[in-house]
Amino acid sequence: MTTPTDNAMLAARAAAAIAITPVTMAKELEDARAKLGGGLRRLAEISEEDLAIATVPRDEVWREDMVRLYRCKPVVDKPHAVPVLITYALVGRFQMIDLEADRSLVRKLLAEGFDVYFIDWGTPARAQRWLTIDDYVSGYLDHCVDVIRERSEQNTINMLGICQGGVFTACYAALFPEKVRAVAFTVTPIDFHGDKKDPQTGSGYMNQWARALTHDDIDALVEAYGTAPGSMVGFAFLMMNPVSNFTKYTIDLIDVMGDEAKLLNFLRMERWIADRPDHPGEVLRQWFKDLYQDNKLIKNELQLGERTVDLRNITMPVLNIYATGDTIIPVSCSKGVGEYFGTKDYTEIPVPGGHIGTFVGSKAQKILAPSLADWFKQRSAS
Amino acid sequence: MISGAAGAQSIYDFWLGMLPQVFAQMGAAVPPTAQSNGTGSALPFPADQVAKAASMTSDALQSIARSYAPMLQAAGAPGLLSQWASMMPGLIPAQPTAAPTTPSAAAMAIPWMTMPFTPAMLAAATGQAMPVSPAGGFLPLQQMQKAWTDFGSQMVGNASQTYTTALDRTFGALGDALGLGPVRKLQAAGQQIMAAAIAQNEARAAYGMLVQSALTAGLQRLLKRLADKAQANERVDSVLALMRMWAVATEEAVHEVLQSERGLEATAAVTRAGLNYRRQMQAFASIIADALDMATRRDLDDAYREIQALKRELRAMRAPTAATSPTKPRARSAKRAGSK
């Protein structure tokens, strides 16, 4: 056991590494304050338009309740015949796929000649507390797919699911395989207990938190909240890294505010992060009990309505993209899950960065969209 | 534009409220004027929030420059480390030669992070105030625990039982007799709320102790890394770099503690306590709503549930779309109202 005296000796040795003088410190902090001051002046000139996110030109082609289906305006004369439907998670807003013009998965796919659709799940209110995963998958998602099939005159379409939206997409592909040409997952948990095999400090906290609770606790959570407030979900994410979030809003701001481009990137990302829709309680109940706690997806035991999701029905080509630094969806929950699908055409691609960095990180962007584009093109040609 | 604007604001309020406390741990004071001077209030969201954070950071850096300079002058690096270590009781014995800590730092006996994750998010979601001292900082942990224990014994202990029984005899029966509503039920529900509030704060305090241990471990980890650097003849010549080293070391320690078995147990306990408190509040409100013949939460939920069930029936009645032709699937959705 470490004693205070041991610590005092340690502190004395540690002090030897510090070469901060009053003069250097004063200059450093004055420079930092000057950058912050410059940043404050920049902030004063920022308009609402500067902070607009998800501005890709698009048309609303279908709506039901709070859900909207958009078709992005193609940027080529003759897009690929098989459209791509992007399905994002409920815990955040779809804007992540088009955060900024130069950090946009959607725009890159459009530039590759794809006909791109995406779903905006909207903002569920209290009336939506009884919506289940089945309502999303067999209801809204199926309607969207049918609309796209009809508009494009294609029997099958390509699907791209992101995170929780990837799980919905997997369920859909298993329940309606006849409507899906090829399916891609990005940062999607498939094996919800994967983190047990490869526990990493600082990763998979949500998995562990959920398992530390009982089924009754989850029921109590849903009963107490009905529709889980978006702010609660937002806090859950932010508090996974509480100290980093302190530096993010303080000393890390110094560099951010000293650079106009970085500042705008930061503000747009903050705008997206802050926009957390409420989460329907019954989805939450099933998400935590059946998936995080009981891992029913890979056991082919997940019940949606009267049907069971059997991943072996996913016989169409599968592309699985995971982020090597993902701490929200641990790599071990999304990597190496090909054995659970019925397909013989399974591809895995790692991208550098974290969960959200997959879509906005400079390194990841060089891999994500080109990989998706090549893969979908190859699978859509036959 | 933002779907949950109030929720988003509550998250920023939480973080921005924390900044002065964290800086205080480093011996920096953020003047109250900087915290509430409305900096950036005319800016679009979230530029307004970032402007507030930047202003506070700027003030804190100025404070650091003022308080660290004499400390470095008098005691050098040991003085600076002593300043930080003084926030972690028991880590390092008192050093008479070290410069005195600032009053604001000394007042921060409880770390800023005693409310992370579940307690914070539940508190934010329910709109509950977090326990704060009259000065705006968190109460020292032991003081907070004692306050709640005392409060508990006063409100639900034997003395209070006698008091409430007498109250019930005097007014409860009378209220019921005159048709003034279920006074006894409300009294019982009120006691349940008190008990749940006490249990919640006890769980929070236990959680806070855990985080305190993580912060101490984080500082110790920082010292080890600095010692390793010294041994390798490396030097840290930047205050900001030193702060970042502290943040990395502390984050690691926090992760280790919160992901440990006892950390997860404490988190689960605080979650349960928070949920129980909310449910007791709902039960209380439900009694009042019933008495006033107003729709209760359950009434609304039942109605919403029925609507959702009807929607499902409607969905099941729609003809399934078959892949009838290789190029022309049968139209379905476009014929429905709402399709465009």
Folded structure, characterized:
- The complex is a heterodimer of chains A (382) and B (340).
- With 382 residues, chain A is an alpha/beta fold.
- Chain A has one domain (51-255, 269-381): Rossmann fold (3-Layer(aba) Sandwich), CATH 3.40.50.
- Chain A has helices spanning 4-15, 22-44, 105-111, 133-152, 164-175, 194-197, 205-212, 215-225, 230-238, 242-248, 251-257, 260-274, 281-293, 331-334, 357-360, 362-381; strands at 58-64, 67-72, 84-87, 98-100, 103-104, 116-120, 157-162, 180-186, 302-304, 307-309, 318-323, 346-351.
- Chain A starts with a helix and ends with a helix.
- Chain B is elongated and about 80 Å long.
- Chains A and B meet through helix 1, helix 2, strand 1, helix 4 and helix 7 of A and helix 1, helix 3, helix 5, helix 8 and helix 9 of B.
Report the average pLDDT across residues of chain B: 74
Tell me the CATH architecture of chain A.
Answer: 3-Layer(aba) Sandwich
Count of helical segments of chain B?
11
Q: What would you report as the Rg of chain A, rounded to the nearest angstrom? A: 23 Å
- Sheet-strand content of chain A, in percent, reads 15-25%
Q: Return the domain count of chain B.
A: 2
Q: Could you say how many structural domains of chain A there are in total?
A: 1
Total strands of chain A: 12
Into which percent range does the helicity of residues of chain B fall? Answer: 55-70%
What is the count of DSSP helices of chain A, taking H or I runs of 4+ residues?
16
- The end-to-end span of chain B amounts to 23 Å
CATH topology of chain A: Rossmann fold
The CATH C-level class name of chain A? Alpha Beta
